[in-house]
Amino acid sequence: MAAKYNQSSTSNRNRSSNSSAKLIQLSKTLSWLLRHSVIKEGLQFQSDGYIFIDDVLRHHSFANKYTIDDIHQCVAINEKKRFGLKIDEATGKEMIRAHQGHSLEEANVEMREIVNPDEFSTIIHGTYTKHWPSIMDKGLSKMNRTHIHFAPGLPKESGVTSGMRGNANLYIYIDLEKALKDGFKFFVSSNNVILCPGDVNGFLPVRYFRSVENRRGEKLPIPIDSFKTNDSA
Questions:
Q1: What is the model's pTM?
Q2: Hey, which bits of 88-191 come out as E strands?
Q3: Do 143 and 118 have their domain in common?
Q4: What reactions does this protein catalyze (predicted)?
Q5: Shared-domain flag, residues 86 and 116
């Protein structure tokens, strides 16, 4: 009897592990498609970034691998609230989108402009110490995305669901009031990620850094010459 129980318990654990791995892979593939590859893959999407789930499931990366129930579960358990669902009023069909992180300029995701710096007492960009020399030189870059991403606090703090990777080991605190005063635009997405398109070249210069800390809470010095005005950075 004990042997049968152990076999059953092991089988259940294996099924649970396989299911988790499947949903993790689904989340990664959805992020790739919805954030970066909709146009390249020949799929239609609305101006707000939504795409029909039926079209997703017909795509070769999803067909015969995932079901609509898998997508529902993936959206429901995603801790960072990366995806949103809605019903298209015209067709009654279900649609999905990524809330932010797009490299598609055409995707006008739902976000609200921040006009009062007092709305967020803290905004932080999470990165890695290996990138600090480049950041000191040029500032923060949106890279291949449409915005630079920030969080309204550190990972696992109340209200912080996304905005930085959980394993980030360098935290850059932004002087939001100063940046807004100088004309930089900031927005907050529907999953509470703070977004900034940067300057004309997609950068937020170092002079808007309030402080920089590592995971141990130790402050890193910001060289005085990093605060130079550099419109090309």
A1: 0.57
A2: 94-98, 111-113, 124-127, 140-141, 148-150, 170-174, 187-189
A3: yes
A4: 2'-phospho-[ligated tRNA] + NAD(+) = mature tRNA + ADP-alpha-D-ribose 1'',2''-cyclic phosphate + nicotinamide
A5: no
